[in-house]
Every structure is written in structure tokens, then in C-alpha cells.
Amino acid sequence: MAPLTLYHSTASAHSRGALFTIRNLGLDVDIKLLNLPAKEQLNPDFIKINPQHCVPTILDGDFTLWESRAIAVYLIESKVPDSPLYPKDVKERALVNQRLYFDAGTLYKRIRDICFPIIYLGETTIPDDKRKAMFEAFGWLDGFLDGSDYIAGPTVTIADLFAVSTMLSIVNAGCDIGAFKNIVAWLDRCKTLPGYDENVDGAKVFGQRVTSRLTDKF
After folding, report:
1. pLDDT tens sequence across 104-150
2. How far apart are CA 112 and CA 118, in angstroms?
3. Is 138 helix (H, G, I), strand (E, B) or coil?
4. Alpha-carbon gap, residue 171 to 187, rounded angstroms
5. How many Å apart are CA 125 and CA 122, to the nearest integer?
6. pTM of the complete model
7. What's the half-sphere exposure (Cβ side, CA atoms, 13 Å) at 61?
8. Cis before residue 56, ω within 30 degrees of 0?
9. In terms of CB atoms within 10 Å, which end of the chain has fewer, N or C?
10. 93 CB contacts (<8 Å, ≥6 apart)?
């Protein structure tokens, strides 16, 4: 059987979330790094695999899939269906899904709204409205963790793996989250998870891309 292949960018929170899932499932993987600033994702051979030319992308035998959270769910359901990372109870799974969508559509998006213009459009400062929106999302995340060790309940789920990847990006870009005590404690708890240090290393790459251009403070 051909090994699982992951097309990956270390700086991408989405891609790190998929790899973090793979590490926590204990799956063997062949990682193929793509240098996105160098446009390696536009290589014709990769476009044949994924016409949207985005990471992460996996090859599992003759099956190809992209979109990070879809990848995480697929890997659990197809390879480790009893994993507590994605509980089978309908209500517990619904809460995990809600947190995943929160990360994708709110938390990550509000961070991206700040960082994308800095990295790609030459912005060097942070608009007050975008800063306020980002910290509002942090407040909601902090609330999810009020009285709970993890964001979707008492145990680690894939919702944590993706939100950790998102938060590590902004922390390593110099954002002070000290006011959000529940988030700080949660990130500390997650340090023991397989692949956490690897995730931090990738987040540092992202963070340097932001801080090297930013003249403002978060």
C-alpha cells in the first residue's frame, strides 16, 4: 500500500492543523514541502493533483483530498474511526464541528484579515477595527475554555488541533494574549501533544514573515 502523502507548507496554519492531526493519530506520512512564496504550488505537476493548488493536500492511494478540516475528518473516519479526536456521539461531534467552523470562519479569518495585507499587500500597521475584531474572537475562544480543559469538552479533539495551530501563528507574530488566561492555560496543556513543537516551528516561520514587515504592535 502506498504511504499517505501530505503536500505541506510549514507556515500555513491550515496545513499545520492537518499535520498535527496526522501526528496525533500516529499515522505514517510522506511529507512533501511546497515553498508557497516561491510559487511551487503552481508547478504543473501539482496542479494536476489539485487544480486549486492549495495546501494541505493529501494523496491516499488513488484518493486525493484538500481542505484541511475535511482531511482531518477523512483520516479519522477512514483510518482511526474510534479516535476520541472526533467523538461518535452526535451532540459531542456537533460541538466539535461548531468549534472547527468557528476556527475557520471567525478566529482564523480575523487573524488573516490582519496578516494577509501585511505579508502580501505591503501594509505595515494594523487598523483598529481589525485589531478589535481579532481580540473579540480571542474573547469568545477564552469563553469556550471557561471551566473546560479543551475547547469542545474535557478531552482533546481535532477542534483543539486546528485552533492551536491558528493561535500559535499569531502568538509567534508577536501578539500578546496574556489577558486571555484560559487560552494561555490551554496552550500550555497542549504542549504535550504529539507534533506540538513541530507546529511551533512552523508558526515561527509565519510569525517572522509578519514581524519582518510590521511596524505596529498588536
Report:
1. 999 999 999 999 999 999 999 999 999 999 999 999 999 999 999 99
2. 10
3. helix
4. 11
5. 9
6. 0.97
7. 5
8. yes
9. N
10. 86, 87
